[in-house]
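Review form for a predicted model. The reviewer records the input and the model, then writes brief findings.
Reviewer: anonymous (R2)
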Amino acid sequence: MNQEREKKKCSFSEPTPFTPTEDNPQLKTTPTGFRLNWTDPNPETSGTTGWKVYYREKGSDTWRYIMIDDPNDTTAFISPEGAEPGTTYDAKIVPVAGSTEGQHGQPIEVTLSELKYSDSAVCQKLRHYSCFSKHFLSYNSQMCHKLSSRK
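Model under review:
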């Protein structure tokens, strides 16, 4: 009896696919990344135990992903290594049930925002923060230098 119950606990069927709509997911871009925030369309019946958010630079064949192990955590910030302002990416939100991935829907096209001259004040503040990674500070210092030379 206990073995039968254990088998039922561990068997996962394919979760309900996530299909993007006009307002789901919500998207916010920065010059170095993007944030997706979505709602599980069928939280009671989807069988979702987590999410994989796949992304790739537009035109690339290589998909990367981040794993979210909490089905209620429906926000992901993607900051691709070497991201440049204005770069376009494809992203897909895929539900996961145990080790079973749901169907991959159509990708969402995301274009990173451009760095604006008004962001130069932010650049000055960034130089004073030590909590950011060296890569982040290095990249943003380069972008700030580009801004300063435009004036």
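Findings: Residues 2-111 form a domain with the Immunoglobulin-like fold (CATH 2.60.40.10).
Further findings: Strands lie at 26-29, 34-37, 50-57, 64-68, 75-78, 88-97, 100-101, 108-111.
Recommendation: see findings above.
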